[in-house]
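cron nightly-structures :: item 1 of 1
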Amino acid sequence: MALIVEDGTGLVDSDSYISLADARTFAANYGITLPADDTEAEITLRKGTQYVDLQEDCFAGDRLTDTQALAYPRDDGSGMPKALGKATVYAAAEFALGTDVRATDDGKSIASEEVTGAVAVSYFNNGKTGGTVTITRAMDALKSLLVACKNNGFEFGVYR
């Protein structure tokens, strides 16, 4: 099924911030590899869009409508920033490589466990397996949009 690109009106069924043609042009200009097969490329762009939307708590403003499918457009008057499409392509390229950016476990690898009076557990690599991955290029593209973070009902601005 063809991508439904958000046009800035708050579509209820959009699933990407960038069209396949525009994504391919951007990717070619910056040496980014997307799948050659259009269907596979569209799947990775949808996943890239989902990755971008994971940052919604740090976007300024609120969704433009209650029914829109994606985190943008926002009610702050920013429209549809080009950074959304760029970040989507960067994330899509990682998904195309088979990178699992969202951990399905707690990321801890147990090296040994001992139960004798007291419990002792040791982990490989300080317990980190790299289960959750941050796509740095996508986050860099979104940097200008990441202005506020909402945590536990509180909101705070991040300024430089």
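cron nightly-structures :: done
Strands lie at 110-116, 118-123, 148-151, 154-157.
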